[in-house]
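Hi support team,

I've been running sequence recovery on a batch of backbones for a student project. Most finish fine, but this one hangs at about 90% for roughly twenty minutes before it completes. I'm not sure whether the input is malformed or the queue is just slow. I've pasted the structure tokens below so you can try to reproduce it. Let me know if you need the job ID as well.

Thanks,
M.K.
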């Protein structure tokens, strides 16, 4: 199979397994069930059966994934290798002596501080939020892990995949669309809504890529 066929097959299997697990959970409603959500369980099943594709972190385009591809869950994005982390908004890898960003998931509105303006993205760094005794504790963000990876990507002009998270009105939760490759052009510090220091990154979309009809999503 071609890389594209492998990606589409994995997504089809995900949907089939997800629906089966969802029906099973609904049939057992009221009984003791695992707290892990159905889409996380589905990812575990596909990982165990070797259905993940592009399982190694990479810079640039992912074989078989096209600009404009849509996903309902972060677990789907992970299974096709677009953004392997299902927790972090910035995914990164080690390359020689550097840590470089491979992809980011950016969202705007509904409390998110990221902002899209045509082919320019202003992205908020990671970290600064903690929980202590059930209370949210804010800290200044640090230049480590994903934040450092974005700075290194800017220095080396290494492209970063951008996945855009969208709120949809036709179902609960978030919807994800692959927007293509971006390059980090600048970064700075500023005070966030809670008063803590956060990093802001300016990313610009690489030219020559297929466009995405964003009017379709709003």
């Amino acid at each position: 199979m071609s890389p594209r066929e492998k990606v589409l097959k994995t997504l089809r299997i995900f949907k089939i397994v997800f629906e089966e697990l969802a029906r099973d959970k609904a049939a057992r409603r009221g009984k003791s069930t695992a707290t892990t959500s159905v889409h996380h369980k589905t990812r575990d099943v596909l990982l165990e059966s070797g259905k993940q594709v592009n399982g190694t972190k990479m810079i640039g385009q992912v074989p078989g994934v096209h600009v404009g591809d849509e996903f309902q869950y972060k677990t789907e994005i992970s299974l096709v290798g677009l953004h392997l982390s299902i927790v972090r908004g910035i995914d990164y890898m080690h390359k020689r002596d550097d840590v470089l960003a491979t992809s980011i998931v950016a969202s705007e509105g509904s409390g998110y501080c990221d902002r899209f303006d045509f082919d320019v993205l202003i992205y908020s760094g990671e970290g600064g939020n903690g929980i202590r005794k059930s209370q949210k504790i804010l800290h200044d963000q640090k230049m480590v892990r994903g934040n450092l990876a974005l700075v290194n990507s800017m220095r080396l002009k290494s492209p970063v995949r951008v996945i855009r998270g969208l709120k949809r009105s036709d179902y609960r939760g978030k919807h994800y669309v692959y927007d293509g490759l971006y390059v980090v052009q600048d970064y700075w510090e500023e005070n966030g809504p809670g008063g803590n220091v956060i990093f802001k990154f300016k990313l610009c979309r690489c030219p020559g890529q297929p466009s995405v009809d964003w009017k379709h999503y709003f």
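--
Follow-up from support: It reproduced on our side and the slowdown came from queue contention, not your input. The longest helix spans residues 3-27. No action needed from you.
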